[in-house]
Amino acid sequence: MTDISFLLRRTGLGLLGSALLASSALAAPGGDATPGDTSLQTRLSSLLAMPYANGLAGAAQAPRIAWVERRAGVRNIMVSDHGQAPRRLTHYTRDDGTDLWGLVLTPDGRSLAYVEGGDPEYPNDAPPNAGQATFAGKETVHLIGPSGHDTVMGEGHSPAFSPDGTFLAFSRGGTLMIARTGAMPAAAFTTPGAITGLRWSPDGRHIAVEVDRGSHGVIALWDAGAKASSLTFIPPALSNDRQPVFSPDGKSVAFFRTQDPILGTDPQKGRFWSIHVHDLASGAEHTVWTAPAGKGSRFAAPEGSVPYWAADGRLLFPWEGSGWMRICALPMTGQGAPDCLTPDGAEVSAYQLSQDGKTLLYTSNSGDLDQWRAWSRPVAGNGAAVALTPGNDEISTLVTAGADIAVMATSVTQTAHPVVLENGHALSPVTPALPEGIAFVTPQDVRFHSADGLDLHGQLFTPPDDTARRHPALVFVHGGPERQMLPAFNAMGYYSNAYLMNQTLASQGYVVLSVNYRSGSGYGEAFRNAPETGRAGASEYRDVQAAAAYLQARDDVDTHRIGIWGGSWGGYLTGLALARNSDVFAAGVDFHGVHDMTEPDHPGLSPQQNRDAHEQEWRSSPIADIGHWRAPVLLVHGDDDRNVEFEQSTLLARMLTAQGVPYEDHVFPGERHAFLRTQDWLQGYMWMTRFFAQTLLAPGKP
């Protein structure tokens, strides 16, 4: 998922040929329903069928926005003009796991390109087949013109229109494809590696192409206006060159140059990224600025971030030199420290410039770290930031559409939906509502501390009844780990589903605590890069223990019936909880978790350093404490997962079998990490609710 889920590419495990997970005594024979299943399935089906929007795009010169709407698992593309009632451009009818993404509009908004199929996180991998079709689908670029006709332009991804809208470019592996609107595309060039992004110059003559070559990244420049079209490269380095952006006059390209530090590098040493500008006419390239050692020396930025050329001639870019992700401005001379435009002590999650380059638009949790709003401020001068949204919704993606500003918003009862902002008013093309007869509790923001003194944030979901009896309880741990859960629907589909599941669990009588543990986002660089997390020591598990202690101290919680659930990195923490503290956690549900954190080798480390790192990774793994694991667990995994290898679950199943630990297991053939089919989310959540009913709610349980 753009889930920046933990990417674990291991080799040599040798488990792929093993038999699938062993049968479990906990599994209901043949999937037989248990009492209450019918009403529960109806509730979950209704909630998962709610319209959910993502992929927001805006036209440069027209008040038109477009987005992907998933409704009852079926994805279609919608457009709206100036926030008015939307119309549907596509006519898909099946929940078959085929994604729609990469939306882009021509400047006038009259044509739209998109990608059908494939995986946005791994666009150059073989397309998924979650729907188990006889033959897997392809990843194809589509063009919908003013007539509404939908034309397949060919295999590829990352479509981009020229500034005048007359050409469409897209990538196919290492090949750049270009088509004049209304004609079929032709290959412009092919280069080793995979094209991961492209951007046109303002005059439409050049295209800057980002190419991933595995060990490094380069930027190619295609001159489409020359008599003999030519390909050149910005002089590369032993680094990754990324996110090229042309200057307003089209004569220069700004880009980031980054390196990944070697394991164990002192965070106070090293300068790992810089901003560069390349002059197209002379071929000269110079360093504008290099991040100093210390805070912010390692490249980190909101997803999709690019440097922006402001109207006053400065470059805008994200930097967390103060310990918080802020947007800063830098003179082209590179002289002096960057002037940061957004407030300290708060994070920015999305940003861009207004069409005239004079106003910075961004989303931030300024004033309340658990609340995101849209803001604006002048680039030049000392103008104050102005909140564009009042604060009763959670705001994520932000785009411009002509003079309009559009955002994605969510609330306690509303899934992600587009909102157009105009003079302090919000125009909503779609206003999702809870299905009739379903009510949600309002999650409570709670604060508690870990044993080592870290201040932690969470959301508490309590059962709607007001009886004094003690309830079973659950800790929910998100994945990522660079994620932040909020007291509302999440803008990411994966966590939008998790939020409605936590609401459903509360309606079933559980007290649910969603914990934002260290290494997550939203609370500054020191929190995100806390020492000894993950394979370096699993220090974030202390925060899971703190969440359990918080629940144990509540009068409405039965301390003998506390469970835990999560996916990806949350599955990893679920595994740690059950392996280390089956005395605290009576049961757990682990979706596609990481169970063995060891890496075979770390380049740049000595043999002894590799042995020491391997030992630490082992001790940070759930399977290191498998001898203490007693609590039952449910394991669910898609066997085409590209984020966490499927072998992570087959390995754990074998070890649990050897220990005699009861477990239930389910596999989705062909599914990816973030399940692509809504029916698979429904099935997975039904398995989970039945499992917890058997282990935490069943009569006679302690």
TrEMBL record:
GO BP term, pick one: proteolysis
Gene3D superfamilies linked: alpha/beta hydrolase (3.40.50.1820), TolB, C-terminal domain (2.120.10.30)
Protein keywords: Acetylation, Hydrolase, Protease, Serine protease, Signal
Signal peptide (UniProt feature, chain positions): 1-27
Location of the Peptidase S9 prolyl oligopeptidase catalytic domain: 503-696
PROSITE patterns for this protein: PRO_ENDOPEP_SER
Function noted in UniProt: This enzyme catalyzes the hydrolysis of the N-terminal peptide bond of an N-acetylated peptide to generate an N-acetylated amino acid and a peptide with a free N-terminus. It preferentially cleaves off Ac-Ala, Ac-Met and Ac-Ser. Also, involved in the degradation of oxidized and glycated proteins.
The protein's name in its UniProt record: Acyl-peptide hydrolase
